[in-house]
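Most newcomers find our protein records easier to grasp once they have seen one. To make this concrete, we reproduce a full record directly below:

===
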Amino acid sequence: MRRLVLFSLLVAATPVAAQQGAPSSAQLGPDIITSATGEARVTPDRAHVLIGVQTRAATAAQAGADNATKTRAVIDAIKARGIPAAQIGTSEYNLYPEYDNREQPREGPQTPRVIGYVANNTVRVEVRQLDQVGAVIDAGLAAGANMVNTIQFFASNVDAARRTALAEAVARARADAEALARAAGGSLGALLELNTQSPPVRPVYAERLMRMDAGVGAAQTPIEPGQQTLTVWVGGRWAFVPGGTR
């Protein structure tokens, strides 16, 4: 009989221990989940300038050779403005045939006629002093470039601005959570979870420029970078305390 009593007590105690080790969702209580965004303004301090060189010739070899000569002259002119070689590179090189687009006679084979070749090369320049951007563009155009494809302005350090935006986003998320708690007849409890997602700061693009008539003595190209908006997202989860003030 004694063995049977002990066994029954152990069996009865097992569910109680399980309940103490793993609280149910009802014991944890309800949560309040909110999210918010924060913003901060940053002023760009650097720029990427894409300066294009396009050449045409009767043969592919000549178009490529002419392009190489002009591209070298553009790079040398930019270096002469004080831009180090490490901040200058080339990209998007291509060479292709140019066809006669006039309507062909309907009789006979329809074979496009090659009338020449076009070579393109792009000189990419990182400018770390924005007051040099206009001078770099003008130097490249004067040396033989005939396209300025894009100017991208960006800030080299956004850490402080990002943290300011994060603080704003957390304050907004908490204020919303407190409003929800009051509306539900309770108060906001302890913070349970906080996370963030910060998309990359997109560079500011200036309008596409094309100038083929830059001459010596021309006024320097004016460049104004403006400001960028940095946006962050924050999500938070708080415990809800029912009834009265915590």
About this structure: Confidence is low (pLDDT under 50) at residues 1-27, 207-217. The chain has five helices and eight strands.
